[in-house]
Specification:
Layout lengths: L19 E7 L2 H13 L7 E17 L2 H25 L7 H26 L6 E17 L3 H8 L13
Length: about 170
């Protein structure tokens, strides 16, 4: 009795392959993409392939120190943008007697005030536990190309013709 992955090979589920086998593992996404592109150029049925990022890492890049002034400026800018949006929406429904410019400017002003207040209160609530700004991302350190079992041998043969060939599975 064989075991099947639920949803494997189902046309409505594009993220599943029927009995996937590893074709190659790369250190960079561009190399995995190059191998799939090579197979596509050589008329391989690429719908039987999948690139899977593995060994995920969360990376946080510190972009700067947070100060009260910097937080206030950020709140001001986001508040002005939000106020502009609300002002434009309200001016669309305003009567012809009302000045659209006055509506937009007043909502931008209210947005700026509330943006600064909200940002400063939020910053004060952290009590200095996070006095820096950062950008985070989840990235893969390895990229594995998977192929459906019925085409694995053909894919390996074809990929051997790629300049540089298949990556060494025993390389560190």
């Amino acid at each position: 009795m064989s075991m099947r992955t639920p949803g494997a090979g189902v046309p409505g589920n594009p993220l599943r392959l029927e009995y996937p086998q590893s074709l190659a593992v790369y250190d960079e996404y561009a190399a995995a993409q190059k191998s799939v592109d090579y197979l596509s150029d050589n008329k391989f049925p690429v719908e039987q392939l999948m690139i899977v990022g593995t060994d995920l890492k969360r990376i946080e890049r510190i972009t700067g120190r947070l100060t009260t002034g910097r937080v206030a400026v950020g709140g001001l800018i986001s508040g002005v943008w939000f106020g502009l949006f609300i002002g434009v929406v309200l001016s669309l429904f305003a009567s012809k007697d009302d000045s659209s410019l006055a509506i937009i400017l007043s909502t931008m002003g209210f947005g700026a005030v509330f943006g600064v207040i909200f940002a400063l209160v939020s910053y004060a609530m952290t009590r200095g536990q996070r006095d820096f700004s950062s950008v985070t991302a989840v990235v893969a350190t390895k990229y594995e190309v998977l192929v459906e079992h019925k085409s694995a041998a053909r894919a390996r043969e074809m990929l051997a013709g790629l300049p540089g060939g298949l990556p060494d599975p025993f390389a560190p």
